Amino acid sequence: MARPLITVLGASGFVGSAVLAALAERPVSVRAVSRRPAAVPAAGPAEFEVRTADLTDAESLAEAVAGSDAVIHLVLDASGWRGADDDSATARVNVDVMRDLVGCLRAGRGGRPPVVVSAGSVSQVGPPPRSPIDGTEPDRPQTSYDRQKQSAEGLLKRASHAGTVRGVSLRLPTVFGDGPDRGVLATMARRALAGEALTMWHDGTVERELLYVHDVADAFVAALDHADALAGGHWLLGRGRGERIGDVFRTIAGLVSAHTERPPVPVVSVPPPADARRTDFHSVVVDSSAFRAVTGWRPRVPLREALTRMVRALAGSPPRS
């Protein structure tokens, strides 16, 4: 029996690298596609094919996904996420790639529509109307990035409802981990390792939903397993617990202190920049019970352990499993 072919777009990125590691444990064929060659796991039953491609080119994208039973779409450009107006360059990545993807996919073995699992963002809801959010709230995206993610998600949902694909959108909270992470927690860990103070734009009581990247990867694999039940909707991921930013930054400072044997750097409040948004000062907590009920997924790595792995990786020490 032929192995199912799963194509990962954006395979060399932060989440993509973790998804490849999760898929390595399965008897599948994985096509890892990105602008630069992705590093694939050395062990496991999965078979890997590495391709490089400019996925903003429609013909290259069609070649990359040809014959796929499932596609995990992780391509994004977050460079304009604070922009006031929609930017055509980022929209080419964040919206048009999705439009081209659902336009070129064809039914796979047995005539079944291929599965597409795409990464969205919990920030698409805009300022949270309540806490926790669970995905049933009306969306009021505030930034060009969130509007673009919303547009891409709409394309996927319409294609799913038309029967072209079985589309699933997973909305992610703040993701962090021990890979090529450029997010806020990794930035603060790097500052602490450099002996610099960690800065906040508020008093530190604002809460954020934090999710370890390997738990995110497990959710994408779970979505593949339950695509028929999830298709056509968006699903929120999270631990179901908000973490105060001040407490998290102090934990990072303490972990770095333990690693370097230097006193912990201070955590301080500073005036917000001119481009600060309302959402920067709203707490975000996610109720992911809907996704959990369908898939059985749940985060496995405790927050402190995940932060420890991140600090060790950024400090140049191999993360402990």
UniProtKB/TrEMBL annotation:
Pfam families assigned: Epimerase (PF01370)
Ranges of compositional bias, category Low complexity: 115-125
Domain NAD-dependent epimerase/dehydratase: 6-238
SUPFAM superfamilies to which the protein is assigned, alphabetical: NAD(P)-binding Rossmann-fold domains (SSF51735)
Gene3D superfamilies in alphabetical order: NAD(P)-binding Rossmann-like Domain (3.40.50.720)
Region of interest called Disordered, as start-end residue ranges on this chain: 115-152
Domain of life: Bacteria
Protein name: Nucleoside-diphosphate-sugar epimerase
Organism in which the protein naturally occurs: Streptosporangium brasiliense
